[in-house]
Amino acid sequence: MISLATARERWTSFLGSFVAVALGVAVVTMSALVLLSDGTGVPRRLAGAPVLVQSPAGEGAGGVFTENPPWAPGRAEELRRKLAELPGVAAAVADRSFYAQTPGSEQRKGERQGHPWSAAALATYALSAGRPPATAGEIVLDASLGHGPGEPVTVLTARGPRRFSVSGTMDGPGYYVTDRSAAELAGGVRAIGLVLEPGTDATRVADTARRIVGGDGTVLTGAARDALAPRQDEMTRWIGGQVLTAMALLSAFVTVFNVSSTFAFAVAQRRREFGLLRTIGATPRQVRRLVYGEALVVGVAGAGAGSIAGVALAPAMTGLLIDAGFQPAGFEVGIRWWVPAAAWALGVAVALAGAGAASRRASRVRPLEAMREAAVDSRPMTRRRWITGLAATGLGAVCSVGTAFAGADAMVLLALGAAMGLTAGLTLLLPVLAGPLTGVLTRPLARRPGATAVLVRENMTTAVRRTSAAIAPVLATVAFAVLITSAVQTTQSADTTRQAAAVRAEAALVPRGTPGLSDAAVAQVEGTAPLSTTVYGGEGRSALSAAGVSPGFEQAYTVRAPRGNTVVVTAAVAAAHGWREGRTAVLTFEDGRVGRLRVTAVVDDSLPYQVFLPRELVRAHDPSALADVAYRTGPTPAPLPAGLGAEEVPVAVYAASDDAEEDRLVWRFTLILVSITAGYTMISVASTLLAATAGRTRDFRVLRLSGATPRQVLLTLAAETCCVVTLGAALGLVVAAPALFGIAHGLREELGLPVEPAVAWPWVVGVITGCLLVATAATVLPARTALRRMRRA
Questions:
Q1: Cβ 623 vs Cβ 187: under 8 Å
Q2: What keywords are assigned to this protein (predicted)?
Q3: Would you put residue 541 in left (φ > 0), alpha (ψ -120 to 50) or beta?
Q4: What is the spatial distance between Cα 721 and Cα 779, in angstroms, rounded to a whole number?
């Protein structure tokens, strides 16, 4: 018969595995449900057209999202006219977009909410008051902006603030002007919407349209029309997908780690039990089946709870992702029944995989183990553990050295490899390191009178398996928290230094509340303002980031501004397209027109754009282009007029705040990963110490019989816990330090600038404090309960 205390001890040891499996499956279920959902749906401003025709896609790169190249003006008009002649088509409307914004409203970078009035026929909303615009000075806008028909309104455009009279309001987003005004403000046509007559079959019209369009576009119907959602939403979904994928993979990995450590510790505690089973005739195979059976129970129960929780929490998780900026507004999660079923099966498999090593160790327990009374670990290190631990540590050290000499892409992988290798290696070697490190740590306490320091030292050095099992999750928590947060902070600091060093200017004029600077804002300072646009080069019309620069550009950068029909390209673009100095580059502009430009220079890839064009050429082909920043190289200007959406800041401040939205998402991504890692490993800390404390009831009784008071027993346990967390934190810092210094050295060599390691101390201290609080609670609270039970007995 198994005693109540033994049963309590056994299930306490498996509680951490149950929670880890449940959380892991919940995260995997939520992540998969969100990843497999359809997205935000068809944009409202186009959803009123049952059939949409999109321009053909150009070449792109992973993680880079740009609009499809526009049709050439003549081809766009030809397609619109032919589609309008189809039976059942009431109107074929060419959709254009341009930058428009009222002062005080907010818009994202790259967002263009201005459209021709004819495109209003494609929307699911209509006029709520007033009438359509009839002249160039009239506009229809969203009623939620607070302007009514007949009121004057200032609208920010790429040229500058422009006065309009509100002719009407819509019950949906957007700024609508006459088609003629839109043609002057907007670039090329990328979509044509078909408004059908009542009763017309959209599928039949789409089939006919495909024969007309051929390879010059894509005909979309139904849910497929969401391909015309803003590219900002697509980029946000891609970022969210990376976050969710990392969360799911990390959850699976840490779940295996927790289950493995929990079962390994449980087997170490139950050596006498397994020895007794072997004595009465149990075979190694039967012992393995016993451990696997326990893992199966934990896996089935934990995975079941996790899959149910994942389905229930998926909508709430979606809301959190939208608030954090990892999913676009309007995104809705769809429930698919097979996702929780697959996650449940994965959870069971992970639990069984985690128990594999423990089952083999249990099967090797000898019958004589049943005769042991002492809790001293006589042989905690096997030959295989020595070899594996040293090999993993060596691999981590090699990756650390490689980090200092690798490129930017390989640097991150090598840093992670270094952290994983050193973490695994030191975890395997902990049984031989715990004794000496504990002696060094408790040496100052040994000088103090009393038996507490002696008990702490002897308990930790004699029960090295227990000590190692408690140190390991703290080591992993601190190591990854330090590495992830500090690597991001070091990289961002280096990027800020690089940007500030690359520019020679007195100050920077930056947008505030607007996606860029208009010509009117740029005209307020003496200097240069790269006009940001996108051009498409090569036969596949690959998207290239381009800037229109003025002759003063060389004062801020070491690049001579192109003039006339010339272009400057970076080395990577030149190599990809076969362009060389003196050759001709063929580019498609934002309005769909094609230009043949002579390459006058090939420059370094470290510049913020891939292609440099004359500013007047960009403005001629992209009437809605905005400047990302204006660098002032002249004297201090007069105070800026209000309503331009701009302010002047030092160059160093702009360098630190540039790509602030991307940095914000990166930090949120980083903190999510750190929180998941720390949360899981703290579960491992708590479960290990709960099981260890539950197994020390006999030790508590001996101490009480020896004259120790309950306070002294609890003080001894608290001191042990502090030593465990201190050793784990110190080893975690040792693991992260080589990779972090390697990253700093690699960035220093690559950029040729001073780069120092930047440790995110607030987060590191927070993680260590969390480990200490969790470990102390998991040790002292159950011990206090056990001592009270002894007193009543």
A1: yes
A2: Cell membrane, Membrane, Transmembrane, Transmembrane helix
A3: left
A4: 7
What residues contact 730, with CB distance under 8 A and at least 6 apart?
A: none
Nearest to 36 by CA among 450, 314, 434: 314
Cα–Cα dist 120/176, whole Å: 8
By three-state DSSP, how is residue 155 classified?
strand
**Any idea how long the chain is?**
793
Taking 50 as the pLDDT cut, the residues of the chain under it are 1-5, 61-63, 370-371, 373-376
Q: Which of 747, 644, 593, 658 is nearest to 103 (CA)?
A: 644
Rounded Cα distance between 532 and 644, Å, is 18
Q: Which residue has the tokens 């190591």?
A: 479
Closest Cα partner for 176 from 215, 152, 142? 142
**70: DSSP letter:** P
Helices (H), 36-113: 73-84
CB 113 within 8 A of CB 173: yes
- Please name the helix (run of DSSP H) or strand (run of DSSP E) that holds residue 195, with its range, or none: strand 191-196
In DSSP terms, which residues pair with 196 in a beta bridge?
89
Quote the DSSP letter at residue 101: B
pLDDT in the model for residue 461 = 66
Cα(275)–Cα(217) distance, integer angstroms: 73
Phi, psi of 532 (to 5 degrees): -80, 135
What stretches of 497-618 adopt beta strand conformation (E)? Answer: 507-511, 527-528, 531-537, 542-549, 566-570, 584-588, 594-603, 611-614
Widest distance between CA atoms in the chain? 101
Contact 491, 409 (CB under 8 A): no
Give CA separation, 793 vs 2, 345, 701, 741, in Å.
20, 45, 11, 57
Q: Kindly give the pairing relationship between strand 531-537 and strand 542-549.
A: antiparallel
Burial-class residue 612 by CB neighbours within 10 Å (0-12, 13-18, 19+).
buried
Q: Judge if pTM exceeds 0.70.
A: no
- Which residues have a Cβ under 8 Å from the Cβ of 273 and sit 6 or more positions away? none
State the Cα–Cα distance between residues 441 and 571, nearest whole angstrom. Answer: 56
Q: What is the pLDDT of residue 38?
A: 67
- Predicted local distance difference test score (pLDDT) of residue 662: 59
For residues 331, 337, 338, 344, the Cα torsion angle rounded to the nearest 10 degrees is 100
A 10 A CB-CB count for 188 gives 23
Q: What are phi and psi of 100, to 5 degrees?
A: -150, 140
With 0-12 / 13-18 / 19 or more C-beta atoms within 10 angstroms meaning exposed / middle / buried, residue 416 is middle
SS3 642: coil
Angle between helices 231-269 and 284-324 (to 10 degrees): 150
Query: In sequence order, what are the residues at sequence separation of 6 or more whose Cβ sits closer than 8 angstroms to the Cβ of residue 310?
Result: 25, 26, 27, 28, 29, 30, 33, 340, 343
Which helix or strand (DSSP H or E) is residue 462 part of? helix 452-462
pLDDT tens, residue by residue, 342-377: 889 888 887 787 777 667 776 776 765 544 544 445
Q: State whether residue 623 is helix, strand or coil.
A: coil
For 584, phi and psi rounded to 5 degrees? Answer: -105, 135
- Residue 48, number of CB atoms within 10 A of its CB: 16
